[in-house]
Amino acid sequence: MRIAVTAAVALLALAPAALAQAPWDLAKKAAGQATTGKLEKEVNKRLLAEGQKNQCTFKSGTAVLERGCDAKMKRLSNALVDAKKKLNASGVQNFKFVVSGHTDSTGDAAKNKALSAERAAVVVKELVAKGIPEGEIESVGMGSERRLVKPDDTPAKRAKNRRYEIQVKL
Fold first, then answer.
1. Is the dihedral of CA 111, 113, 116, 120 positive or negative?
2. Is the pLDDT reported for residue 59 higher than 60?
C-alpha cells in the first residue's frame, strides 16, 4: 500500500510539467499536420491532373493495355519522381503512392471491382518497370464506387468513369 501511495504522489508531482508541455506539443503537431495536409493536397492535385492527361485504355473487359501507352506511363513515372522529390524536400518520408482503378457502372459489381483491381495492378507494374520502387506504390480496385460522372448513361460518360487515378497517401 505504501509503495502505491508513493508512486501516485510521484506521478502527481510530474503531472504539471507534462501538462505545461502538452499544449506546446499539441500546437507543434497541429502546425505540422496542417503543413503536411497542404502538401498532400498539392501533390495529389498534380498527380490527378497527370493521371487524367496520361490515361491509357484497356482492351474491353480485360486488364490488357492498348498500344501506345509507353510514353504515357513514362510521363506518369516522371510525375511520381517529381512528387517524391517534393515530399522528401519537405521532410516527408513515410508515404505510398496509390493507384486506384475505376470502372463504369455497367455489368456485375463484383466483376467490375476485380477488373479495376487488375487494371490498377497493371499500371503499378508498368510504373515499377519505369523505375518507381515497388515498395513505394500499391494498387486498389474501386469498381464503380467513386464515379466521376453520374449517371453514366452514355458511352462518353461511361468512358470517363473507366480510369485510374494516382494519389499519395501520407
1. negative
2. yes
